[in-house]
Design brief:
- The protein is an alpha+beta fold and 272 residues long.
- The protein has one domain: Rhomboid-like fold (Up-down Bundle).
- It is built from nine helices and seven strands; from the N terminus they run E-H-H-H-E-E-H-H-H-H-E-E-H-H-E-E.
- It has a three-stranded antiparallel sheet.
- A hairpin with a 2-residue loop joins strand 4 and strand 5.
- The two termini are 23 Å apart.
């Protein structure tokens, strides 16, 4: 499912959310500005490598595939080499890693979800508290990934753990919201309105299922499922605590979708 938009308007301009999006874009452009080797070095320096974080000072070997000429032709072989050194304490890479991305699709997918859900969460939490919340969820996600992948030598990058925390908070703060989504059904593409709790719970269950299946599996490059799970759970829990303590702003009016139209137009309003 790909969200297109929700029906919750923001009362304030989400400049923190847009600043986070812009920062990720600028960092990614800096990543791809150099050569392939320079890009790999940047990811190894500022990405989170679990083994390096838990064993600071020890040399970490990362695997890479290199083409070699053999009597039978060109072949790709795997070899290990020392990872590029991080310029600061490895624990700080839990923070820096959430601003790096592995490619255009990784970047666009993450930032689109942040664009859809982040503005409304910032609206309820306030600007500076939202920034702290976002970073805290990213750290919680990284710690969860560390717990389940403590021997990994693969650099972990991406904002998806922090964004998962935003989605967890959205689930709690806007239980009656609706999300206009693209849903592929076999070979057909449908655009339908889905209750936000259905969208978010299904997304979380997918992460949990994939994360559970990955336990004990042979390590390979891919998605940090447990970072998503940890970030989502942290975001939901923190939002619940803030709401119970009265630290969140009042609920915002939501735009209800017209029953005869697939889009979301402000025909009727009510409090979420």
């Amino acid at each position: 499912m790909i969200p297109l938009r929700d029906n919750i308007p923001s009362r304030t301009f989400p400049f923190v959310n847009y600043s986070l999006i812009a920062t990720c874009v600028v960092v990614f452009l800096a990543q791809i500005a150099g050569s392939t080797s320079a890009q790999s070095e940047m990811i190894e320096q500022y990405g989170m490598i679990p083994q390096r974080v838990l064993n600071p000072g020890e040399q970490v070997l990362v695997e890479e595939r290199v083409p070699v000429q053999t009597p039978r032709g060109l072949a790709v072989v795997e070899r290990k080499r020392p990872a590029a050194e991080t310029p600061f304490n490895p624990w700080l890479t839990l923070l820096t890693s959430m601003f790096l991305h592995g490619g255009w699709l990784h970047l666009i997918g993450n930032l689109w979800f942040l664009h859809i859900f982040g503005d409304n969460v910032e609206d309820r939490l306030g600007h500076f508290p939202y920034l702290l919340f976002y970073l805290g969820c990213g750290l919680a996600a990284a710690l969860c990934h560390l717990l389940f992948n403590h021997n990994s030598t693969l650099p972990t990058v991406g904002a998806s753990g922090a964004i998962a925390g935003v989605m967890g908070a959205y689930l709690l703060l806007y239980p009656r919201a609706m999300v206009l989504s693209i849903v592929p059904i076999f070979v057909l593409i449908q655009i339908i309105v889905i209750p936000a709790p259905v969208f978010l719970v299904l997304w979380f269950l997918l992460q949990f299922f994939q994360g559970t299946m990955s336990i004990g599996a042979v390590e390979a490059g891919g998605v940090a499922w447990w970072a998503h799970i940890g970030g989502f759970a942290a975001g939901f829990a923190v939002a619940a605590l803030l709401q119970m303590s009265g630290a969140t702003r009042p609920k915002v009016e939501q735009v209800l979708p017209d029953s005869d139209h697939i889009g979301m137009h402000p025909y009727r309003r009510r409090y979420s």
